[in-house]
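pasting for ref
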Amino acid sequence: MDPEANLRSRLEELEKLDERRQRAKWEQEVAQARMKAYHDRKIKQSQRLSEGDLVLWYPGKLDVKRKSLRIGWSGPYKVFRIYENGSVILEDL
Protein backbone atom coordinates (compact mmCIF):
# COMPACT_ATOMS: atom_id res chain seq x y z
CA MET A 1 0.00 0.00 0.00
CA ASP A 2 1.36 3.38 -0.88
CA PRO A 3 1.76 6.05 1.83
CA GLU A 4 -0.86 8.36 0.31
CA ALA A 5 -3.55 5.67 0.36
CA ASN A 6 -2.55 4.76 3.89
CA LEU A 7 -2.90 8.41 4.94
CA ARG A 8 -6.35 8.70 3.32
CA SER A 9 -7.45 5.51 5.06
CA ARG A 10 -6.23 6.81 8.40
CA LEU A 11 -8.00 10.16 7.91
CA GLU A 12 -11.25 8.36 7.09
CA GLU A 13 -10.93 6.30 10.29
CA LEU A 14 -10.34 9.47 12.32
CA GLU A 15 -13.40 11.13 10.80
CA LYS A 16 -15.52 8.08 11.64
CA LEU A 17 -14.16 8.12 15.19
CA ASP A 18 -15.08 11.79 15.55
CA GLU A 19 -18.60 11.07 14.24
CA ARG A 20 -18.99 8.23 16.76
CA ARG A 21 -17.86 10.50 19.61
CA GLN A 22 -20.33 13.19 18.58
CA ARG A 23 -23.11 10.61 18.34
CA ALA A 24 -22.26 9.22 21.80
CA LYS A 25 -22.29 12.73 23.28
CA TRP A 26 -25.65 13.45 21.69
CA GLU A 27 -27.09 10.15 22.94
CA GLN A 28 -25.82 10.92 26.45
CA GLU A 29 -27.48 14.35 26.41
CA VAL A 30 -30.76 12.82 25.22
CA ALA A 31 -30.62 10.16 27.95
CA GLN A 32 -29.93 12.78 30.63
CA ALA A 33 -32.83 14.92 29.41
CA ARG A 34 -35.08 11.87 29.49
CA MET A 35 -34.03 11.00 33.05
CA LYS A 36 -34.60 14.60 34.18
CA ALA A 37 -38.06 14.64 32.63
CA TYR A 38 -38.89 11.35 34.38
CA HIS A 39 -37.62 12.69 37.71
CA ASP A 40 -39.55 15.94 37.32
CA ARG A 41 -42.77 14.01 36.63
CA LYS A 42 -42.33 11.99 39.82
CA ILE A 43 -42.05 15.04 42.10
CA LYS A 44 -45.32 15.35 43.96
CA GLN A 45 -46.99 18.67 43.36
CA SER A 46 -48.83 18.49 46.69
CA GLN A 47 -45.56 18.67 48.62
CA ARG A 48 -44.57 22.15 47.47
CA LEU A 49 -43.38 24.33 50.31
CA SER A 50 -44.04 27.98 50.85
CA GLU A 51 -42.38 30.49 53.14
CA GLY A 52 -43.73 30.29 56.67
CA ASP A 53 -44.57 26.56 56.53
CA LEU A 54 -43.55 24.37 59.45
CA VAL A 55 -41.41 21.40 58.46
CA LEU A 56 -39.43 18.57 59.99
CA TRP A 57 -35.86 17.89 58.91
CA TYR A 58 -34.49 14.39 58.41
CA PRO A 59 -30.68 14.50 58.52
CA GLY A 60 -30.05 11.26 56.61
CA LYS A 61 -30.29 7.52 56.87
CA LEU A 62 -26.78 6.43 57.74
CA ASP A 63 -24.38 7.66 60.37
CA VAL A 64 -21.03 6.98 58.72
CA LYS A 65 -19.01 7.18 61.93
CA ARG A 66 -21.08 4.62 63.81
CA LYS A 67 -22.39 2.83 60.72
CA SER A 68 -25.86 2.65 62.14
CA LEU A 69 -29.19 4.17 61.35
CA ARG A 70 -29.89 7.59 62.77
CA ILE A 71 -32.97 8.09 64.83
CA GLY A 72 -35.81 10.30 63.86
CA TRP A 73 -36.59 13.70 62.61
CA SER A 74 -35.61 17.01 64.11
CA GLY A 75 -37.63 20.16 64.26
CA PRO A 76 -40.06 21.69 63.72
CA TYR A 77 -38.46 24.44 61.68
CA LYS A 78 -40.02 27.36 59.84
CA VAL A 79 -39.32 27.78 56.11
CA PHE A 80 -37.54 31.14 55.89
CA ARG A 81 -36.66 31.33 52.18
CA ILE A 82 -37.05 29.14 49.09
CA TYR A 83 -34.68 29.55 46.15
CA GLU A 84 -35.44 28.82 42.50
CA ASN A 85 -33.21 25.74 42.47
CA GLY A 86 -35.34 24.16 45.24
CA SER A 87 -32.99 24.73 48.16
CA VAL A 88 -34.60 25.93 51.37
CA ILE A 89 -33.38 28.04 54.28
CA LEU A 90 -34.88 26.98 57.62
CA GLU A 91 -35.03 28.91 60.87
CA ASP A 92 -35.59 27.72 64.42
CA LEU A 93 -38.86 28.49 66.12
